[in-house]
Amino acid sequence: MANSNAGPSRSPAALCGADNDSIVRIPLSFQETAWTSCRSSPNPPRLSDTTQPDADGDGVLDSDITDVTVLNADGSKTETVSTYNGAGTILIDKTVTTTSADGLTTSVAHYLLAVAPQLKNDLHTLLRHDYDDTVDIFIRYRYPDVGPERRPAFVAELLDLLEHRRELLPHFNYMMLKGVLQIAERLDALPYLEDETPNVLIESFARFYVQRLCLFKNSQHILDVEEIVKERIERSSFTDRDRELKHFRFAVSHDEPGIQLSDIIVGILGKFLSFVCSSDDAGLMAARRGLGERQQRSLSLLNALLDRSVAENKAFALRAQPKRSGSRSVLSGPVGLALSA
User: Fold this and answer.
1) Residue 37 is inside which H or E element, if any?
2) Could you give the C-alpha distances from 274 to 116, 253, 279, in angstroms and in order?
3) What is the number of alpha carbons within 13 Å of residue 146 lying toward its C-beta?
4) Average pLDDT, stretch 323-341?
């Protein structure tokens, strides 16, 4: 029997015995004292094992975990632990651990593959449920400069928040996010949460300008004057292999009708997206039903404009909000969500 604080077993044979149908009780996660059933297919001695956990005991496998160790020619060994979905068809996570021949040096690499965007979306779902509460958390922990001293309490509060709002997420998403947060509790450092400027979420918008300049290298860009951004970009050089790119210029908005028009469009879209991101699906459905004839036509025209833009170049599409269950990205195709006309 495994200890509840020992973490997932890496030697299923020791737990399950020799037959392929053995059922064993193992810890659900590093921090829980609750137990869950696990079906394993051991065949000792060998360097490959498969574990298939059933977190809620409903007979449906939640994931498929393979553990493969390779003995290298130089005496070192490489262990790869891969987590797939219950059907075994989608790689979710991979951890590669390399140990030197003398056992004195170990390197570990973690890869959150297919689930990384979904984890981000799920965390956003929890935080946007109550913006005032989220702002309070950020202020109290000086986010993003949480630092090593405040990090354990910060992660613990996120875990507590996840427990209280677990009904907002599908069970599998809840379990995955919980596992990642529990891993975060034990890491020596969390990038982007240390040695940052307290209470500053975006230091400069210049990176957004640079991204579009690099992505659309063959276009001519007319940029509205933002002094801080202008200074940052003009100090940079843009090249395409050996060719220097001089494909942008800054202009005062009242001298450029195109900038004036874009300011209006961006302002309207900003209001619209803020409303969409701060509303749940039920609220969006109610808003959609309450649109007047002219509002519906305006929404249809926006849909058509976005469709034409994406048809012209898919790179014009930019996700403006996290993915939501049963919804489509606001800017990648039709306006989508419950508001689509």
Assistant:
1) strand 35-40
2) 24, 24, 9
3) 18
4) 41
Q: Which tens digits make up the pLDDT trace of 161-195?
A: 999 999 999 898 898 899 889 888 888 888 889 99
For residue 8, what are its two tokens?
A: 């997932």
Residue 222: pLDDT band with limits 50, 70, 90: very high
Question: Would you say 80 and 96 are in contact if contact means Cβ atoms under 8 Å apart?
Answer: yes
pLDDT exceeds 50 at position 3: no
**Is the full-model pTM beyond 0.85?**
no
What are the structure tokens assigned to 112, written together?
């959150």
Could you tell me which residues are beta bridge partners of residue 68? 48, 80
Closest CA to 197 of 138, 121, 134: 138
Averaged pLDDT score across all residues of the chain = 75
Q: Helices marked H in 187-341 — which ranges?
A: 206-215, 227-234, 257-277, 281-289, 293-312
The pLDDT > 90 percentage for the chain reads 19
More confident residue, 57 or 333: 57
- Residues 34 and 36: their CA atoms lie apart, in Å, by 7
CA nearest neighbour of 32 among 189, 219, 178: 178
The pair of three-digit structure tokens given for residue 142, joined into one six-digit string: 């000086």
Tell me the pLDDT band of 31, cut-offs 50, 70 and 90.
Answer: very low
Least Cα distance to 321 among 286, 281, 294, 290 occurs for: 281
Contact between 273 and 320 under an 8 Å Cβ cutoff? The reply is yes
Phi-psi region of 76 (alpha: psi -120 to 50; beta: other; left: phi over 0): beta
**180's tokens:** 């990642």
Long-range residue pairs from 42-49, CB within 8 A, at least 24 positions apart, any chain:
42/12, 42/13, 42/16, 42/17, 42/18, 43/13, 44/13, 44/18, 47/71, 49/10, 49/11, 49/12, 49/13
